Amino acid sequence: MMSPLWQSYLLVRMLGWLARAVMPLLA
Predict the structure, then answer these.
(1) What is the per-residue burial (b if ≥16 Cβ within 10 Å, else e) of 4-27?
(2) Is 25 helix (H, G, I), strand (E, B) or coil?
(3) How far is CA 21 from the centre of its chain?
(4) Residue 26 has what pLDDT?
(5) CA 26, CA 7: separation in Å to the nearest integer?
(6) Which pLDDT score, from 0 to 100, does residue 27 have?
(7) Cα distance between residue 8 and residue 14, in whole Å
(8) Rounded Cα–Cα distance for residues 7 and 22 (Å)
(9) How do residues 1-27 score in pLDDT, each as one tens digit?
(10) Cα 3 from Cα 14, distance rounded (Å)
(11) What angle do CA 12, 16, 17 make, to 5 degrees?
(12) What pLDDT is stored for residue 9 in this prediction?
């Protein structure tokens, strides 16, 4: 079972990756 801190870290990493992937499309 993963700790909440690790889950939130992965969530932040995934959100940052999605932001980098979408930014060129919105620009």
Answers:
(1) eeeeeeeeeeeeeeeeeeeeeeee
(2) helix
(3) 11
(4) 83
(5) 28
(6) 75
(7) 10
(8) 22
(9) 679 999 999 999 999 999 999 999 887
(10) 17
(11) 120
(12) 96
Q: In whole angstroms, how far apart are CA 1 and each of 12, 19, 24?
A: 19, 28, 36
Instruction: Compute the residue count for the chain.
Output: 27
Tokens of 18: 């999605």
Give the pLDDT of residue 12: 98
- Give the Cα separation of 19 and 4 in Å (integer): 22
Report the C-alpha gap between 12 and 15 in whole angstroms.
5
For the chain, give me the number of helices (H) and strands (E)?
1, 0
